[in-house]
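User: Can you write out an input/output pair for a complex, sequences first and structure second?

Assistant: Here is one pair. Inputs:
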Amino acid sequence: MKSYTKYLKMHTRQKKEIVNITSEIEEAVTESKIKEGICLVNSMHITSSVFINDEESGLKQDFLKWLEEIAPENPSYLHHHTGEDNADAHLKRTIMGREVVVAITKGALDFGPWEQIFYGEFDGQRDKRVLIKIMGE
Amino acid sequence: MKSYTKYLKMHTRQKKEIVNITSEIEEAVTESKIKEGICLVNSMHITSSVFINDEESGLKQDFLKWLEEIAPENPSYLHHHTGEDNADAHLKRTIMGREVVVAITKGALDFGPWEQIFYGEFDGQRDKRVLIKIMGE
Amino acid sequence: MKSYTKYLKMHTRQKKEIVNITSEIEEAVTESKIKEGICLVNSMHITSSVFINDEESGLKQDFLKWLEEIAPENPSYLHHHTGEDNADAHLKRTIMGREVVVAITKGALDFGPWEQIFYGEFDGQRDKRVLIKIMGE
């Protein structure tokens, strides 16, 4: 069994932003030389997400608008008694998910026709990291 | 380390439908001959889900009704400017999840008393696929 | 490849409660003697969750309040025709997630600065279990 670990640095310009990281993950799979296995990709922070969906700019805006409706910014969260102002980002990240696990088959991400991997930032404009862990043979 | 890959074909009669796929996953685990490891099961499409919950017909209807409330069909999504009409299916799939990772212990899915695996379709009536990737020894 | 399996017993005092289980997972990683690999942690029940977020008491209350808003207790669920009264717990668990997969690097959970693992109970006051499956070398 082989394993391969890589960290991506993320720093979004916007506070809330969805970034396509598929090519970075594909690069890590190639570097790992693993042909059959799995690839775990996760945010290392609790106000951002890694998820799989569609590369379409309108849909990415729909996601951000929808998240604002079901997990709105609001000064009344108890979490804000600590001096924080980002409780909504913790909720938004929960909806979108922390991680994805992707199969690797014949040396490549085993994806359907439209699957793309995204980093979802909900409290950005500062340094964050994404972890890639690949296991297999 | 051994690995085993299998693809299930899905084609629901309804546009929105929840299908129990537990026996298909159990069959793949048996075929893999893997006794200790993990089993990844994911939708290969971005408007459908794989998730674990309860085999109870009322609850499955509750899920579909609830998803319609928090991620409704609506003509005003920006995604629909592309000619698509299924933005709600992308959101519903996000709530239900893309994938599950299940432990394999002593050659079987290591499940609690009520765990069952489902395929959740939110834009169906056409061919789709589910990926099963099993790793272990 | 090595694998290690462990079950945690859970029994919350409250019906709805969020419990930090990070130290129990770290203990299992040490016991496994696995240095590079992955650790799957999942609820074995369909009305409770395992998820990663922040150890902050106000935020934990925010989570429970928010879940009550988007997946409320309500006598009108169809699931309740079976005699059950916990349909909301099935929905809440879906939002929070069934499982996490965490990388193990150099013998430890490969976590960002604030990541902690929680068990989220939404229909408690009875015996439940969490599964830990560790794979690697």
